[in-house]
Structures are given as structure tokens and as C-alpha cells.
Amino acid sequence: TDGELDRRVALRTTRQKRLESGLTLWAVIDEAVVRRALGGPEAMREQIGHLLDATAERNITVQVMPFESGGHAAAGGSFSILRFPERELPDVVYMEQLTSALYLDKPADSDHYMEVMDRLSIQALEPKQTRRFLEQLLSR
Questions:
Q1: SS3 of 13, please?
Q2: What angle do CA 34, 35, 37 make, to 5 degrees?
Q3: Inter-residue contact 77 to 41 (CB < 8 Å)
Q4: Do 62 and 55 contact (CB within 8 A), yes or no?
């Protein structure tokens, strides 16, 4: 529904603003995310430009998982690992779905997803390579 869409957009906007306060973000994104022109070419250029701007921030790391890497540990779907400054709070794995979201807070689950994230960050382009890759996409 339109109300649900508005709520999700507002939530994402709020999360983006939190990055300005120094929160750390490490994202590994599939190459398809920057190749599939949703919203048209101009919207994609703006999105890629935004990613490039983000790579210049000290608290943001972006890596692209290139097609040539083949299959990878997160091919089944995206996930986020939320880590809180309060040590007594457990890490939480968050997976957004079409009509709901799943939160995993058991240490065994978050440890498993952390291992997956470690593998993804090794398999993906390094941050500097990612920046060059995004610059090349914009120059086309």
C-alpha cells in the first residue's frame, strides 16, 4: 500500500541520517544492484553518484560483488548485522522480506552471519577497486 511504502521510505531516510552522526556502515552489494537501471538511466546515475559520495566517508565502506565472482554466500538474500555500542546488547541479524522482517538475536545466528560477511568482504572488490568500478560505470 502507499502508506506502507511511505513508512519504509521514511525509515530508510532516518537510517541514512543516522550515518551522519558517525555510525559505521559496511555494505557488500551485488553488481546487479548497480547494473539494473530501475527508475531509468538518470535515477541510476544519481544512485551510483550517491554510492561514490558514500565511499569518501570514513565511517562507510562499500564493496561490490562482481558477476565474475560467481556464486557467493549471500546469494539467497540480503541481510544486515546490527551491532550496538552497549556491549550487553547482542548483535542482531535483520532480514527484510516482502511483507515482514526477521530479526535473529541468538549468538550462534549472528556469529554465522558474521562469518558470511567476512567471506563476502574477501570475495568482493576491495573498497578502492569498488570506487574505480563505480567511477567507470558513471563515465559510460
A1: helix
A2: 95
A3: no
A4: yes
Length of the chain: 140
Q: What is the pLDDT of residues 110-130, one digit of tens each?
A: 999 999 999 999 999 999 999
* Closest listed residue to residue 135, CA positions, set 85, 87, 75, 64: 64
Q: Whole-structure pTM over 0.70, yes or no?
A: yes
Residue 69 DSSP one-character state? G
Query: Could you tell me if 101 and 29 are in contact, meaning their C-beta atoms sit under 8 angstroms apart?
Result: no
Residue recorded with cell 577497486: 129
Distance CA 70, CA 105 (A): 30
pLDDT in tens, 68-81: 987 776 777 889 99
The string of DSSP letters for 30-97 reads EHHHHHS-TT-HHHHHHHHHHHHHHHTSTTEEEEEE-GGG-S-TTTT---EEE--SSTTSPPEEEEE-
Q: Which residues pair with 64 in a beta bridge?
A: 29
Q: How many other C-beta atoms lie within 10 A of the C-beta of residue 64?
A: 26
